[in-house]
């Protein structure tokens, strides 16, 4: 019997995946983002206890992205070999161990090493989940799954502050500093969730005990048809060297680099800026750092709703970059409360620019190089997460203030906004494609 992709069995199988598997990987991503950025809440503690200054902190925070970039491709290859259940849970358990080990940081060198190892451990998780979706869902369903998954990435910025701030309040319990408690408990929780996920995550449709045979047949047939369409669209293998020489790809790499540069700088340095508000606790710092991200997520989803209906994204990438630059610049003026308000504008601007960027990038690249080009843009652009925090930390170390670094980030964002005008649209009609990655 031929099973339509719209058959009751197919729809039922998709619903079960969204109900059983998707919440699990979203929860894993929330923890992933929290463990990646929680170091921003302990900068002052590391300086007081270990003598790790602003420049060393910025470099260490950014070294994560070096390890991540180097090992992302090998990790993806191993995921395909071992399957999602084994490899995604291995990634989570490993990064949890590294986060917990960060509690035993003794000096600048161990801080650098552990941040680099965290990037190595996390490498492949985000693209691995995107790949996992291709084994479970045809393209018609993956867009919705990816949007929900990315929502977990965005919401992580909101919960990281209050949770990390609350754990820092445990300072002195059993004679252990609060920052050590934060790393130990958050890392330990990641290990626990990774172990539990190993019992529930299912790599292949055929292995799902909670699907009937008819549902397995219907969903497998839909995925296989989608894979056949994608295979027929691969007309040639694209060399990375050819991509690096492609002006359009280089332009998009630069734009994403500029977004990552400032976006991750705000992420890592926001807690230290908020901490300048007089007489507030670590928990209050954590609560206040969530405010810019709440504003950013509201703005991002509003813009996504609008641009999906109008199809006009390029102007909004430029507008988002300018708004982000303005917010970053204003954060250098006035009181810490004013800086917090300004960074609400900055975070919203950069999140909006990022949400409009990937659809624009897909539409501007030739179909023959789209998949490889997007992978290269994501890989090189994420290195902005290394450069940005490093520069801001160095400037603060030299001047005693983050203002100079924030000025530089504002200038870069304005320059990027102008270069958006150079992005040209592809004139050929778009075919079915996998969802693009996003800032994570």
UniProtKB/TrEMBL annotation:
Keywords: Membrane, Transmembrane, Transmembrane helix, Transport. It is a multi-pass membrane protein. One of its GO terms (cellular component) is plasma membrane. PROSITE patterns: MFS (PS50850). GO terms for molecular function: transmembrane transporter activity. It is found in: Cell membrane. Gene3D superfamilies: MFS general substrate transporter like domains. Signal peptide: none annotated. InterPro entries: MFS (IPR011701), MFS_dom (IPR020846), MFS_trans_sf (IPR036259). Pfam families: MFS_1. It comes from the Bacteria. Residues 21-428 form the Major facilitator superfamily (MFS) profile domain. The chain crosses the membrane at residues 17-34, 54-74, 86-106, 112-133, 145-167, 179-202, 249-271, 283-304, 316-333, 339-358, 370-392, 404-423. This is Sugar phosphate permease.
